[in-house]
Design brief:
This protein is of the alpha+beta class. Helix content is about 45%, strand content about 15%. The model has no long low-confidence stretch (mean pLDDT about 85).
Length: about 140
C-alpha cells in the first residue's frame, strides 16, 4: 500500500528527470571544459545515449542508482517499501534493456561506457580519465 495519495504520487513521479540529471551535467561540463564536443541524448542511436562522442564512436550512459538498482553493486533495492514486486520486475527489465542496447551499439562499432551516478558524484575525475583512455 502506498503512503501517498494518487495525486501526490503522480506529482512526485512527474518530476523525475529522464535527462539533464546532476550527474549527467557534471560529466558533460567536465568533458566540455577539456575540449571534448559531444551530442547529448543522441536519438539517432539505440538507447539514446546521454553523451555521444560521434567522431570517436563512444556512447556514454549515466545510469541512475534507483532506476537501474538491480544492476548496481551498492543499491540492492531495499530502499523500496511498497510494491516491491513491481519494482523488482521494472529493475530487471531495465538491466535487460541496458544489455540489449549495449550489444546493439557494440555490433554497430560503438564503444559503450556506463557510469553510475554515485561514481560520477564521488570521483568525477576518475570517470573523465576512464573516458580519456579511449580517446
Amino acid at each position: 500500500m502506498d503512503v501517498l495519495s494518487r495525486e501526490q504520487r503522480h506529482r512526485t513521479m512527474s518530476r523525475i528527470r529522464a535527462q539533464d540529471t546532476k550527474a549527467e551535467l557534471l560529466l558533460r561540463k567536465a568533458l566540455w571544459k577539456r575540449g571534448y564536443r559531444y551530442r547529448k541524448n543522441y536519438a539517432a542511436l539505440p538507447g539514446k545515449p546521454d553523451i555521444a562522442l560521434t567522431r570517436q564512436k563512444i556512447a556514454i550512459f549515466v545510469d541512475g542508482d534507483f532506476w537501474h538498482a538491480r544492476g548496481h553493486r551498492d543499491c540492492p533495492g531495499e530502499q523500496v517499501a511498497s510494491n516491491k514486486g513491481y519494482w523488482q520486475k521494472k529493475w530487471a527489465r531495465n538491466v535487460e534493456r541496458d544489455k540489449d542496447v549495449t550489444d546493439i551499439l557494440t555490433e554497430e562499432g560503438w564503444l559503450v561506457l556506463r557510469f553510475w551516478e554515485t561514481d560520477i558524484k564521488r570521483d568525477l575525475e576518475g570517470c573523465v580519465r576512464k573516458i580519456e583512455e579511449y580517446l
